[in-house]
Amino acid sequence: MALLTPALGLLFWMLVVFLLLVFILRTYAWKPIIGGLKEREHEIQSALDLAERTRSEMAKLQADNEKLLAEANAARDRIIREARDASDRMIAEAKEKATLEGQKVIESARKAIQDEQYAAVSKMKVEVAKLSLEIAEQVLRRELSDKASQEKLIAELASSARLN
C-alpha cells in the first residue's frame, strides 16, 4: 500500500515543480498563446465580416442584375412590338398601293378596250356604209338599166313614202 499513498515530501516537491511550471508557462508561453488565439479570433471575425459584406454585395448585385434583365426584356419587347407594328404598317401600305395600282391598270385597260370598241364600231359603220353604198349602187345599176324598171322603182318609192 505504500505505492498507493504518496509521502509528504513527494507531494511537496510535486507542488513546487507544478507551481514552477505554471509560472514559467505563464511568463513565457501563456501570453504568446493567448495573443495567438486572440489574433486568430480577430482574423476569423474579419473573415466572417468580409464574408457577410460579400454576401450582401452579391445579393445587391443579383438584385441589380435582375432589374437590368427585366429592363432589357422590356426594351426587347418594346423594340419587337415597334418592329412588328412598322412591318404591319408597311404591309398595309404596300397592299393599299398595290390595290390602287391594280385599279389604275384595270381602269386604263377598260378605257383602252372601250376606245378600241368605239374605233372598231366606227370603222365597222364606215365599212358597212361603204358596202351598203356599193351594193345599192350595183342593185340600182342592174335594176335601172331599162326605162320600165326605173318607172316601177319610182312608183314603189312614192307609194311607200305616202304610207310613212
Automatic annotation (TrEMBL):
An example molecular function term from Gene Ontology annotations: proton-transporting ATP synthase activity, rotational mechanism
Subcellular localization, as worded in the UniProt entry? Cell membrane; Endomembrane system
Q: Which residues form a coiled coil?
A: 37-89
Q: Which UniProt keywords apply?
A: ATP synthesis, Cell membrane, CF(0), Coiled coil, Hydrogen ion transport, Ion transport, Membrane, Transmembrane, Transmembrane helix, Transport
Which GO cellular component term is one of those annotated?
proton-transporting ATP synthase complex
Which Pfam families does this one have? ATP-synt_B
Q: In terms of domain of life, where is this protein from?
A: Bacteria
- Give the multimer and partner information: F-type ATPases have 2 components, F(1) - the catalytic core - and F(0) - the membrane proton channel. F(1) has five subunits: alpha(3), beta(3), gamma(1), delta(1), epsilon(1). F(0) has four main subunits: a(1), b(2) and c(10-14). The alpha and beta chains form an alternating ring which encloses part of the gamma chain. F(1) is attached to F(0) by a central stalk formed by the gamma and epsilon chains, while a peripheral stalk is formed by the delta and b chains. F-type ATPases have 2 components, F(1) - the catalytic core - and F(0) - the membrane proton channel. F(1) has five subunits: alpha(3), beta(3), gamma(1), delta(1), epsilon(1). F(0) has three main subunits: a(1), b(2) and c(10-14). The alpha and beta chains form an alternating ring which encloses part of the gamma chain. F(1) is attached to F(0) by a central stalk formed by the gamma and epsilon chains, while a peripheral stalk is formed by the delta and b chains.
The record ties this protein, via PANTHER family, to: ATP SYNTHASE SUBUNIT B, ATP SYNTHASE SUBUNIT B', CHLOROPLASTIC
Role description: Component of the F(0) channel, it forms part of the peripheral stalk, linking F(1) to F(0). The b'-subunit is a diverged and duplicated form of b found in plants and photosynthetic bacteria. F(1)F(0) ATP synthase produces ATP from ADP in the presence of a proton or sodium gradient. F-type ATPases consist of two structural domains, F(1) containing the extramembraneous catalytic core and F(0) containing the membrane proton channel, linked together by a central stalk and a peripheral stalk. During catalysis, ATP synthesis in the catalytic domain of F(1) is coupled via a rotary mechanism of the central stalk subunits to proton translocation.
Family membership, please give it: Belongs to the ATPase B chain family.
Give the protein's recorded name: ATP synthase subunit b
What's the source species for this entry?
Rhabdobacter roseus
Name the gene behind this protein: atpF
